[in-house]
């Protein structure tokens, strides 16, 4: 199955990792990729500060791949459930990745997050061609498909 963008969540206490990649030639202009944890099964939050909403360890946003594609790093405040990345483009096979601590706010596992806990979280891609969204599944992936893209 082809997707225009795939967002993967990789658990890695204390630093969890998100990878955004493109599988098509359709994301070649300015775009915004938003991740919203609000509807996640585990009630997930971003844990960026030592004395805040998270549990034990914390880790602020840190871009680890795709620096040249990032227009501006997002401000992520401890306890936030959403962030947006403004990118200049995301051509086929390019990857933007960042680390950030994600905690389970439901009280179940708290510092480790499984794929099932991020299920339900939403990814949205806004570009000049329009807006598409997808939901993370139990394998911790969200695949955004633009059916109008024929490339």
Outline the fold blueprint.
Blueprint: E1 5-10, E2 16-22, E3 31-36, E4 44-46, E5 62-65, E6 70-72, E7 82-87, E8 95-100, E9 102-104, H1 115-118, E10 122-127, E11 130-135, E12 141-144
Structure characterization notes:
The chain is mostly beta strands. It is built from one helix and twelve strands, in the order βββββββββαβββ. The protein has one helix at residues 115-118; strands at 5-10, 16-22, 31-36, 44-46, 62-65, 70-72, 82-87, 95-100, 102-104, 122-127, 130-135, 141-144. The strands form three sheets. It has a five-stranded antiparallel beta sheet with strand order 5-8-2-1-12, with no helix packed on it. Strands 6-7-3-10-11 form a five-stranded antiparallel beta sheet, with no helix packed on it. A hairpin with a 5-residue loop joins β1 and β2 (16-22).
